[in-house]
Amino acid sequence: MKTQVVIIGAGPSGLLLGQLLQRAGISNIIIERQMPEYVLGRIRAGILESGTVQLLREAGVSARMEAEGHVHEGVEFVFDGRRVPLSLSNLTAGKTVMVYGQTEVTRDLMEARHREGAYSIYGVGNVQLHELKSATPFVTFEVSGEIQRIDCDYVAGCDGFHGVSRQAIPQDITREYERVYPFGWLGLLADTPPVNPELVYVHHARGFALCSQRSLTRSRYYLQVPLSERAQDWSDERFWGELKNRLPQELAGRLMTGPSLEKSIAPLRSFVVEPMQYGRLFLVGDAAHIVPPTGAKGLNLAASDVNYLWRILCKVYHENRTDLLATYSQMALRRVWKGERFSWFMTSLLHEFSDHSRFDARIQQAERDYYFGSHAGLTTIAENYVGLPFDEVR
Ligand code: RFL
Ligand code: PHB
Fold it and tell me: Residues 75-80: what's their mean pLDDT?
């Protein structure tokens, strides 16, 4: 087989890149380890920045999002039992975020790819990347017991944190940056109306909590838990009880509980690999960087990388601007590091840290007091939360 761009991974990064390239007349094949139902079964992100929303519009996959997604003009924070509203739109000259689940974005992209007649191969194994430094790279893999080969111009590594693409770069030319947090998030999805119209981020002495949502009838809640906890030890009852413990009384009083549709624990990690490219391989999304979910940035940073790579590849194929290829990593990383910083900041501000000294704890308290009590502090949180602008590719 032969194509212009081989995309490894059919998560949101791979599917969005594939769709944008397809519409620009650039051929691509996606190879994915799992089956489509498995990819759609993963419950992950829920918040889209305005730049991500715009990119989905450009990809021609925004119709259902516009109809069923919910625009949020603000979020709420709680600390010391006090509720502090943050108006995203007032503090950012009208910018907002969209509540629309990653599962739905993925479904829309899969359907669009099917409509476009673009080729995807699911259920592949033993993916290997070859000759990345040459002008004729290729990818081999196994499917239904046979070894296949695709020749291409470029390879996009969209295969997530545990993928093979990052490993294909020799270790002596990469540097990794990492922070692992000493806790995780226990998430629960339920068909109950959200406790509050806006998302609520809660700092509490018992640990962080987040009240999020997917729609007017579906809620997503998270609790900070020690890494030693196991999801199966948390009955629904125990989860709801602990969430109530961490919410202010008026919210706890109107929390609607119900049977969980999903419950799982995600560890919190900050990670970046530099550079994000090697010869004709480009890393995109979670393959190159991970953020703790507190800033709602993971999926949005993946879209940010796609934005840069797609625009560069368009100029390469349509204007012969091959000089731009060498700028991808630097352009993508500038925005990635700002997302890393914000996600680390929100995580540091809102969680309980068991290793904090009394001094650390007071500084953290003063940080919250300052940021949520100052117009400048609230503005910096709002402009990062809605998403920083993209640099222009030219
Ligand atoms: P993905 O989604 O991990 O997709 C990678 C795909 O590659 C496949 N794959 C392979 N395919 C072929 N060969 C191989 N060797 C392969 N190895 C792996 C995998 O099967 C998979 O299908 O990465 P991608 O596309 O870069 O997308 C990244 C996002 O999924 C991720 O950043 C977000 O989900 C993070 N995230 C959030 N991001 C936000 O922007 N806002 C949020 O509110 C938000 N909340 C979250 C989150 C992530 C969470 N978890 C569980 C990690 C909440 C949670 C709980
Ligand atoms: C979610 O709805 O899954 C979600 C929302 C906001 C976050 C993290 C996760 O910061």
Answer: 96
Answer yes or no: is 253 within a domain: no
- 362: how many CB neighbours lie within 10 A of its CB? 11
Q: What is residue 378's predicted lDDT score, i.e. its pLDDT? A: 97
pLDDT value at residue 130:
98
Question: Residue 139's pLDDT band (boundaries 50, 70, 90)?
Answer: very high
Ligand 1 pocket at CB < 6 A:
8-14, 31-34, 39, 44-47, 102, 124, 127, 158-160, 162-164, 185, 187, 266, 285-286, 293, 296-300, 302
Q: What is the DSSP letter of 143?
A: E
Token digits of residue 286: 């979670």
Place of tokens 């890149």: 17
* Domain housing 298: 5-71+97-177+269-352
Tokens 């500038």: give the residue: 334
C-alpha 74/C-alpha 89 separation (Å) is 7
Number of domains in the chain: 1
Write down the pLDDT at residue 150.
98
